[in-house]
Specification:
The protein is mainly alpha-helical and 411 residues long. It has a single domain, classed as Growth Hormone, Chain: A (Up-down Bundle), CATH 1.20.1250.20. Helix content is 76%, strand content 0%. It contains 17 helices and no strands. Helix 4 runs antiparallel to helix 15 and helix 10 runs antiparallel to helix 11. The two termini are 25 Å apart.
Length: 411
């Protein structure tokens, strides 16, 4: 095989591996929103209250986000040093093995620690997968390929929602889903030892530089831009949008056992389509205009989801679907845009730092949302609507971002 060009078969192998790796990444991201209240009821026993359950949901989410932030930066940097495929394989092994250990926890604190460790792998998967696919496919097809790749993340959440509709999660039966979450370890080993490496990385691997280069004058503005425009949709997704699932569980769980899974399923269906569409939309409308319009739509639909409808209302699932579609346009957009910001020698590091630094802010935002939830007496609609306003910052932030519409990855 030519060192500079992958065969068509090898490029498709890369795309499939990254798609599946991101799908399992999505399973890990979607796991606690549907399982959290059941886990807390089981482990806390008589001490459990609905407000305490919501508080622990915020803690589990914050731990995952903090781990993902650390993992995305550390394992993204590892991808620039030892190769995209090796770092990606390590990431998959991290999120699958530590998730599987959740089946044997005895306390909430043990689960909290494991969610942080799962987050390390969840964070490392994204920058290495995005860098690998971006470098293995020609520029002409990148919007479409980026869309396919990011659809994988939410396809995993959709798959999970369908599984838990068939085999329900309850305080008496939840450990099985964590055992199942360990299965992707097989994929991690295949990626680690058999997946072809990026030829672009091979060509510049001796130029790989420490993380600090991203904060030198040449790259500082790009780094800060990437962090800010990644943080907005990340905080919006986890500090606002995800409250809809425990809300649905609280309102409908006692009479409709599968309602929380159906809620996540409708959201994930919209999100799968949205994350696929985000990159082509950015290619069609331009990077800045598309981000601006998505910011408007995500703000409006998230507020509508919490204020204009409610679980068990006929309009709830359609609005959940629409919110999932629009709010996840951001992530297909980011898969196309972030690799364009950084040169090859620091692409995985820069992409990982930009995308996952937003998770540090998200961890703080989720904990603040949890405190807000408690202070509001466990009012899901109020906390969701108030936190939804974070999306509106995107309408301002995007005009400070460079327009990379005509930039190739080699520039």
């Amino acid at each position: 095989m030519n060192d500079q060009v992958l065969s068509t078969r090898a490029r498709y192998a890369v795309l499939v591996a990254v798609f599946v790796g991101l799908a399992f990444d999505g399973v890990e991201l979607g796991l606690m929103p549907v399982a959290s209240l059941s886990v807390s009821q089981s482990l806390l026993g008589a001490a459990y209250t609905p407000t305490l359950g919501g508080d622990w949901f915020a803690r589990f989410t914050a731990a995952l986000m903090l781990g993902a932030a650390v993992g995305g930066i550390a394992l993204g940097n590892l991808g620039d040093r030892i190769g995209r495929t090796r770092a990606m394989g390590v990431s998959i092994l991290f999120y699958s093995l530590f998730a599987g250990m959740g089946a044997w926890v005895k306390t909430q604190e043990q689960m909290l620690a494991l969610r942080f460790l799962v987050g390390l792998g969840v964070g490392g998967m994204w920058p290495n997968g995005v860098a690998l696919v971006s470098e293995c496919w020609p520029n002409a097809s990148r919007p479409l390929v980026s869309g396919v790749m990011m659809a994988g993340l939410n396809a995993g959440i959709l798959l999970l929602s369908q599984l838990v509709r068939i085999w329900t999660i309850s305080p008496e039966s939840w450990r099985w889903i964590f055992k199942l979450a360990a299965a992707p370890a097989v994929l991690g080993l295949i990626v680690l030892f058999a997946l072809p490496e990026s030829p672009k990385w091979r060509a510049v691997k001796k130029q790989a530089t420490p993380l600090r280069e991203l904060f030198q004058p040449e790259l500082l503005r790009l780094t800060l831009t990437g962090i800010f425009i990644s943080a907005i949709p990340m905080i919006g997704a986890w500090a606002a949008s995800k409250w809809m699932i425990p809300w649905a569980d609280k309102v409908a769980g006692s009479t409709h056992v599968g309602y929380k899974a159906a809620t996540q399923g409708w959201w994930a269906l919209g999100a799968t389509l949205g994350s696929f569409t985000g990159a082509p939309l950015a290619g069609w409308l331009g990077r800045r205009v598309s981000y601006f319009l998505v910011s408007i739509g995500a703000t409006a639909l998230t507020i509508a989801m919490f204020q204009l409808t409610a679980p068990l209302h006929p309009s709830f699932f359609p609005v959940v679907f629409a919110q999932g579609f629009v709010a996840t346009l951001f992530f297909g957009w980011l898969a196309l845009y972030l690799p364009e910001l950084f040169p090859t020698r620091v692409r995985a590091t820069g992409t990982g730092l930009a995308y996952n630094s937003g998770r540090f802010a998200t961890a703080v935002g989720v904990m603040m949302a949890g405190m807000l939830f408690t202070s509001l007496g466990g009012n899901y609609p109020k906390v969701g609507a108030l936190c939804a306003t974070i999306y509106a910052l995107g309408m301002i932030a995007i005009w400070w971002a460079p327009d990379t519409s005509r930039k190739s990855l080699d520039e």
